[in-house]
Design brief:
alpha/beta; TIM Barrel; seven-stranded parallel sheet; 14 helices
Length: 361
Amino acid sequence: MPLFIGTSGVTTLLGPAYERLKTHLGVRGGPPRWLSRPLQYAWLDEEVFQKLGSDARPMVAGPVPASPAREVSPTELVDAWGCVWKQREGVPYYEIVEPPLQNATREDIACYPWPDLANPARFHGLAARCKAIQDAGHAVVFLSGLTLFEQAYIMRGIENYLADMLADEDFFTALIARMKALAIPTVRALLKEVGAYVDVLVTGDDLGTQESTLMAPADYRRLIKPHQAEYLAEIRMHTKAKIFFHSDGDILPLLGDLAEIGVDIINPVQVNAGKMADTARLKREFGKRLSFCGAIDTGWVLPRGTTEDVRAEVRRRIRDLAPGGGYIASAVHCIQPDVPPENMLAMCDAVREFGRYPINP
């Protein structure tokens, strides 16, 4: 059974958790590297990948040449989209404080200085790097950095954008369509360079809360799903890579829709969010159409449980999700600083011990 840890922002560790793990393992490593600087997603050292037994390695495109991210101060930065991020004292990641389109009109969307995401310079040399990962026996997990609904609400502010869905459909549609117009040529240029050497392509849109979907499923199907379908169809045209779709929260009502538009892998399977807790049901109802990545609880088990609790959690998720294939073992989202290194290692060891086919329930 494959184990994903460190393979993407949503399967890695936050910076402080990673430093704690390195100390525990006796790994010196180099200066910090980030899969996402604002979100403090750590890029693991190869020695740590090897010690943990992760079966894949991440890859990302280069920076945007025309509008690169820049650091304003040690606690403030501006990303390539023009979003201002700040780090508050005691918080291990940055948060957006100034959505650049929070007061925008439809006319402002047309004249906004959008980043040059499809610039070929961003993808130069990536094919050779991806091939080297495959030649070393690992899967290539490419972080597209492209979302539609999520990037739109980052630019607009989530409260504003959800209100637009109900009160200003024209603006809502204009903004998500603009995200799609940026994403499609970008993924086309990316996959022209690396499509043959990518095993998993990461995308997603956060669509859920702890108890429900963010919006009524009917509104999702009318206003978001058609744009996602067009974007995923473009990916399918240029690669055989599996499409990895990340969404937190209870998205059970939307799993059939996501399978219908071409999603292969659902992540993170947030088991402390509503009906996503019943992983046996997920497998029973969707296991023929979707694979699952995640499900090892980061809400209680990893940060507060014993190593035996962790082993029991891994066994449970393997029992529910792995029979017949289709499960990639991983923690639910990025591992936080309160997770003891011993529990991280117990998770990885239990996956190796129990994740062998044929699965014995």
